[in-house]
Amino acid sequence: MSVLANAYLAVAVTAESAFDFLKQTTGLGEPSTGPDFGVSGIRPGMDVISACGQRVGVVDRLDGTSIQLARRESLDGCHHFIPVGWVERVDDQVHLTRSWADVGQNWQPVSDTKEHAI
Q1: Phi, psi angles (nearest 5°) of residue 70
Q2: Domain segments of the chain as ranges
Q3: Which residues pair with 49 in a beta bridge?
Q4: What is the average per-residue pLDDT within 63-83?
Q5: Nearest CA-CA partner of 94 in 60, 58, 52
Q6: CATH number of the domain located at residue range(s) 3-110 in this protein
Q7: Which residues contact residue 6 at a Cβ distance below 8 angstroms, ignoring those fewer than 6 apart?
Q8: How far is the C-alpha of 12 from the C-alpha of 98, rounded, in Å?
Q9: What is the pTM of this model?
Q10: Tens of pLDDT along 77-118?
Q11: Contact by Cβ (8 Å): 86, 105
């Protein structure tokens, strides 16, 4: 992982801790009661949001049981794949059950269009 990616991850972990504190003291960030279109509602260009409210990336396409995030949004210039099993709900954004730090540690980077495994 590059120095920039490590710094970004450190900031995300700190922001996640701050968000948890705010959520506990104010109740902000509780789950939405809006519509849930399910995985079938995932479309290219949708923002992907972590459980802590941080933007993870943008959907490039749905690839079987994985969501391919757009390469142009990536710090390392690679596509990243996340399992659809991480999706909590879909409205105008894709909301994940995982924190930004957890996503960043467990997503699957692929630098080209070769097969990937999750």
Answers
A1: -65, 135
A2: 3-110
A3: 55, 95
A4: 86
A5: 58
A6: 2.30.30.240
A7: none
A8: 13
A9: 0.64
A10: 788 899 999 999 999 999 999 998 998 888 887 755 444 444
A11: no
